[in-house]
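Protocol step 4 of 5: obtain the predicted structure for the target chain.
Materials: sequence only (see below). No template structures provided, no constraints applied. The aim of this step is simply to have a reference model before the mutagenesis design in step 5. Sequence pasted as it appears in the construct record:
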Amino acid sequence: MSEEGNEKREFRAEVCKVLHILTHSLYTNREIFLRELISNASDALDKVRFRVNRGELPRLPDLDLEIRITLDKDAKTLTISDTGLGMNAEELAENLGTIAKSGSEDFLASLAAENDRKAENPEETAAADAANIIGRFGIGCYSVFMVADKVEVISRPAFGEGEPKAHVWTSDGLGTFTVETTDSEEPERGTVIKVHLKDDALEFAEKYRVESIIRKHSAYVPFPVFVDGEQANTQPALWREPRASIKKEQYDSFYTHLTYDNKPPLDVEHISVDVPVQFTALLYIPDTERDFFGSERDYWGLDLYARRVLIQHNNKELLPEYLAFLRGLVDTEDLPLNISRETLQENVILRRINQVVTKQTLGHLEKMARDEKEKYNSFWRLHGKIFKLGYHDFVNRDRIASLLRFNSSALAEADDLTSLEDYMGRAPEAQKTFWFVTGPNREACRLNPHMELFRKKGVEVLYLFEPIDEFVMDGLGKYKEWEFRAVENAGPEALKDFEDKEKPEAAPPLSDEDSTSFDALMARMKEILGDKVTSVALSHRLADSPAVLVSPDGGMTASMEKLLKVMQKDDSIPVKILEVNRDHPLLRSMLKIYKADNKSRVLDEMTRSLFDSCLLVDGYLKDPQALAARQNEILTQAAAWYTEVCKI
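Step 4 output (C-alpha cells):
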C-alpha cells in the first residue's frame, strides 16, 4: 500500500447539517429551548456567586443576581437577560461558535485543579463546591434555533480590569456567525439573548405561555426569574432545605403546589443521600386512592430534576411499580444526560436511586406500621392494592410480606386488619401454615363451605378480597418458614392434630343398610349429573352445608381458576368432585326419596339444584334461569306437601 494510502485524515463536518440535526432532531419539544436558556443563565449567575464567595469583586457588586425575560409580540422577539458572568469577544466565539464547547466544562476542570491544589495545602480553605453549575455540554443553547430565525447574544464580562466592552454574537443558525463590539449600554453585566421568533413560534411571545413553561421546567432555579416585570418562580425548592427547619404546613403547601390535590397528604418522606449516588427526594403518600389498575395505570412516577431543573415528568425508572402510589420528585447532582438533556444517557444512576428510594420507603412504612398503627392501616386501605405487587421483589420479599395486611376470621369487623406476625402470634403452637380463603367480601368468605372445618377446629383464616391476593400468596410461597395454603386444599388430614373447638349436634348415625343405600344414592347422583362432575363423594370437611365442589387434584382454587379462565376468555365450567354431607337434613331426605323411588323425578331436580347451588357459590353458574325454574318447581311441590300434611 502506498504512503498516500496510509495518510491520516480528519473527519469533516457540514456545520449547517449538524445545526439542523441539533435543532430539528435532537429535541422533541420546542418549548425546551426556554428551559435551556434559563439553565444557562442560572449557570452564569452561579459562577458569579461562587467567585464572590471566593473573595473576588465583580463589576457593579450591588447588582441583583436575577434573570429577566421581556416579550414583544409586535416585534416577534423574546429577550432573556442575566446579571451573571458574561463573556468577552473570544469567549463568545469560543463558547457559542464551537459546537459542544462548554464554559461550564472549563470552569469545572479549573475548579477540580484548584481543589487538587488545596488538598496538597491543608492550610487553605476547604475545597470549593460548584455542584450547582447546571450546564455541562454547551449544546443546549443551540435549541433556540428551533423557534428562532435569528439570535443576538450581547454580553459584558463581570470580572476583569477596567471597563470591559460589550460584544454581540449574531447568527441565523445556518452555519455562520459574527462577533462585533457594540456601543449598547445593556447589559451592565452579564448576558442578554434576543431571540427573533419564527412566524410559527409566536406563541413564545405570549406571557401566559412563557410562564407556564417556567412553572413546568424551571420553577425551582435558585434565582428569581421575571417575565415582563413579574416573578414567575415564587415557590422555593423545599427539598433543598434542611428537614429540621421545615414545618408540616410547608410540606402540605408544597404538596398542593406539586400535585394540585386539595387534600393534605397522609405522610411525607424527605430523603437526602450522598452515596452511592447524590440526590434529594421529597416523596408524599397521598390521602386519596388512585386507580392504578384502570384509568390511571400509566399516570405514575416521580418528577426527575437535575440541579433543580425538570428533566422528566412521571419518570417510572425511579420507583418499582408497587410504590406507584408515591408522588413527588427526585433531584440529583450525578445524573448523566445526553447532549439534549431530554434523554437519559444511561440508567445505572436511576437504578441506584430506585434502590435507595425503595429501601428508604420500606423503612419508612415499617416505622409507621410500628409506631402509628392507625395511620398505617389508613395507608393500607388506600394503597394496599398496588403495594401487594411487591411480592415480585425477591430482594425485599420478606420486608414486604411483613407489611401486608388482611382481614381474617379472628377479627370482628370488615375494616379490621391483621399482619402475618399477628396471625402467627394467635395461632396454636402446632400450626405452621397461613390458611386463606378468597371471596368478594367478608360475609362471602365466612359462609364459604370450606370454612366449616376451620370453624370447628378454631383455626384462623385470612380473608382475601382482591383477585390479585392469591397471586401474592403463591408468589410469596413462605414467610418465616410458614407456608400459604388455601382452605379449599385442606384435606381430611390437614387439621387432624387440632382439637375440635365447636361440637355441633351430631345427626343420628346411619344404619348399615342406609350406609349402603347412601353409597347407591351418590352413584345415582353421579348418573344424573353425568360428565358435569368427576364423581360424587362423601365429605369429611362439611358441617353445615349440604355439598361442595372440590378440585380433583387439590390444586388451584375456584377463584384462581375462574380468574385465569377470564384472562384466557374461557367460559367453560370446570369439572370437579361433588362432595356431599350425609349428615345434612337435605341429604337424609334425598336418601329417603331414593329408597322409595330411585328414579324419582324430584330426586333428579334436587340433585341438579344442589349442583347449581355449588356452582353459584363458586361463581360458575351460567344458567340462573334454569336454577330459578327448578327452585320454583320444588318450592311449589314443597308448599303443596306442607299444606296437605298440616291440613291447611
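Step 4 remarks: The first strand starts at residue 67 and ends at 72. Residues 22 and 143 are 7 Å apart (CA to CA).
Proceed to step 5.
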